[in-house]
Amino acid sequence: MSIFALVIVSLVTPPPEKEELAQFFNDDLVSVCNALASKGKRIIIAGLDMDFSTFARSRKSTRGFKPDPIPVSVIEDIIDTAKWAPSSYNTQTWHIHAVAGDVLDKIREGNTKNTLAGKPHVRDFPYKEEYEAGHRQNQIDVAVQLFEAMDIKRDDKEKRMDWMLMGFRQFDAPVSLVLTYDKYLDPAAITHFGLGSLAYGIVLAAWERGVGCVINGQGIMQSDVVREHANIPDDQNIMICIAMGYPADGFPANDVRSTRADNSTFLSYVGFCLLYTSD
After folding, report:
1. 171 sits in which H/E element
2. Band of the pLDDT at 179, cuts 50, 70, 90?
3. Coil, strand or helix: which one is 140?
């Protein structure tokens, strides 16, 4: 079925200068909107509400950012939306530390220095470094996609090192959101769930506003560096960080969309009458 939509494209790099209109009949609404969002433009669908399934499929991780700062008002808007993420018993057991400017540069410098010096990774909670079986294959698959996009050959140690260090620099994004929780909650599996749902809410709310994100574990692998420069209180544990900014034009890795496993590999039905399920 053909889809009709009037797409209003707003430039989100502050200050907004103009709006562009695009009218089209197209079955590939996701790819059209995704291409515009990758250029740092906010998409507004007039005359057709984009359903959540379409919007969620349009999101992808951003690893190349423009240096333009993100206004505090935009960050507040993103958080105002994301904080409606579910949490157990509505406990909302999260803290967010928004970091930018010289402070973020010091974190990048410390992460890079410690990594090059061979300092072991330090996390604030138990963490399994090695994935196995299908989980490991998923990790390999996206790495292959990214290396192909960035023209990094398997035996090119220099480029591989440069790419790894980009991760520790939080991909040079202008903003990092450091997500933490109160230490008294440990062992904190339910709290980790809450922060995960918050993180997903953040990246979706940001994407809607033309802001790209990547959930960046490397950025907090030297947690003492992050704690020192971001003034994280001693009674909080650092969970994860989200690198955030307007997507850079022409950065090859920004075109990469990771794959998803078939439902049959992780979904099971118990107690359902299969006679009534649709094909």
Report:
1. none
2. very high
3. helix
